[in-house]
Specification:
With about 120 residues, the protein is of the alpha+beta class. A hairpin with a 5-residue loop joins strand 3 and strand 4.
């Protein structure tokens, strides 16, 4: 990955749950993480900060960059630029600027579609 942003969050995580929208977004990291955050009460559907047209029919964000450009900040989380020791909300980009978001460590995804090492 080209750019590393970890958002330190030591709250307990749970496995991602299926979204009630019923739309298939294959391997969509933002959809998986936002579904988890909404189902666990850490985020509301159609959050401010999600890009226009950037949510599924049930209001789950589907763009990874939306997390780093506002959704993480709304939760009171702070950016760090070194891999955290414990689980964190993580946003990273590849050399083409493609974003990826998940909860875990640099090498292990606990909620989402894969870790930064797998991206």
């Amino acid at each position: 990955f080209n750019r590393w942003t970890a958002i330190v969050d030591h709250r307990a995580g749970l496995p991602a749950m299926a979204c009630p929208c019923g739309v298939k977004y294959p391997n969509n990291c933002a959809h998986a993480l936002s579904q988890h955050l909404i189902e666990t009460g850490k985020m509301k559907p159609h959050p401010p900060g999600a890009s226009k047209g950037g949510c599924c029919p049930k209001g789950r964000p589907i763009r990874a960059k939306d997390f780093t450009h506002g959704l993480f900040r709304q939760q009171g989380l702070k950016k760090v630029y070194n891999p955290p020791e414990g689980n964190a909300m993580i946003y990273c980009e590849d050399e083409k600027g493609q974003g990826h978001v998940y909860r875990g460590t640099k090498d292990k995804c606990v909620v989402g579609t894969g870790s930064a090492s797998q991206f």
